[in-house]
Amino acid sequence: MTDWSAVFLGIIAVATLVMALIQVGAIVFAARLAAQVQQLASTVQQDIQPLIARANAIAEEASRTATMATAQAQKIDRLVTDLTRRVDETSLVIQEAIITPAREGLAIVAAVKAGLTALRGFRDLRGRPGRVEDEDALFIG
Asked: Buried (b) or exposed (e) across 31-49, using 16+ Cβ within 10 A?
């Protein structure tokens, strides 16, 4: 029975040796895989770094452009506000200088016309006393 113990002991020794070799192989494989992953990460970082720098440059340029656009919009707003104020002032001056005297002139002309019409009416009444009666005869009612 001692023979069988040595055989089982030998089988256990060989199995332990195989397991140790598999574990060493797994460790070596994992180390190589880690080195490849690290190399890949380094390559990706080197490739992405210029893209990140370019994106930062684009963002800075966009920020400057937005700042300039805001400043230009403010200038245009001030210009339009000033132009509107000046147009209002000009229309007020035109109204005071032209339209108001024109209205007064038209009122004077209307007053003169009314006066002349009244004078003609008086002259017609003195010249034709029977005219009112003639109009009454023509009335159909």
From this structure: eeeeeeeeeeeeeeeeeee
User: How do residues 42-80 score in pLDDT, each as one tens digit?
Assistant: 999 999 999 999 999 999 999 999 999 999 999 999 999
On whether residue 98 sits in a domain, the answer given is: no
Write out the residue range of the structural domain in which residue 81 sits. 2-91
pLDDT of residue 20: 96
Residues 46 and 80: their CA atoms lie apart, in Å, by 51
* Rounded-to-integer distance, Cα 88 and Cα 54, Å: 50
pLDDT at 29: 97
pLDDT score of 100 more than 80: no
Query: Are 124 and 131 spatial neighbours (Cβ–Cβ below 8 Å)?
Result: yes
In a domain, 18, yes or no: yes
Query: Is position 7 within any domain?
Result: yes
Residue at 47 is within a domain: yes
Q: How many domains does the chain contain in total?
A: 1
Would you state the structure tokens that stand for residue 21, as one six-digit string? 């070799």
Q: Is the torsion defined by CA of 70, 73, 79, 81 positive or negative?
A: negative
